[in-house]
Write a structure and sequence with these properties.
single chain; mainly alpha
Length: about 240
Amino acid sequence: SKCLHFPSSAAASPTVCRKLLGLSIATLSTVTHYGLRFTLISNVSLDSNSYRVIHHRAFYFGICLSMTLILAALLSSAATVRESQCLTAMGFFCFALAFCGLIPAACWRYTHSTEVEDSMMDVYDFVYEEVRRNTSSFRRHELTAIHEAFLCCGKHSTFGDTTNVEHKMCPPSQMHDEGKDCLQEMQDFLKKHMDFVFSFLGITIGFTVYGMILTSFLCFSIHFSSDLYRKGKYILRER
């Protein structure tokens, strides 16, 4: 009797790519969550810090997505070797779950294209105005740390009284020249970062769709390959 065997090398390359993709998403989420510029804005003690909510949700979403993709890759690899319909169906479910999470995330980024940037700049505006009005030591420390992290100096304004804040709170390296506007620096930095994340989301969606197609094809192939198994005895008749 003969049976249909699926070569493990046929699915090895896509499986490795999906594992690397999952690890890359986990790395990107960790770097974004614990990066100095992101944590400074997120840790600002503000009751209505909307950026902190986005910051934490993005981290947990990225970690869950990476774990789902890695699990889907492992299940697909095991299903290819063992020719198991159950493992293949589980792998397809993981890919479908990741796809259902990626599409709303991509749509949210498209419909709220500047919300992340606006929330970060709102936090800076709040800290800046607090220092300008009160100059408390706690807020001064937060503002100085933000200026040093973003290598910027205050914000360009038509009000003359804001220059006092910039002279006291800006890094020495930014005081020799006019300094860079912090709001513009934050906007440029986040726009580049979010464009990269959005592109990465598109690549991940493509790999997820490819994974669903591959696992569904593998599941049907395993199902129909059972017809190739021949049971019973063969009796040779003399002519």
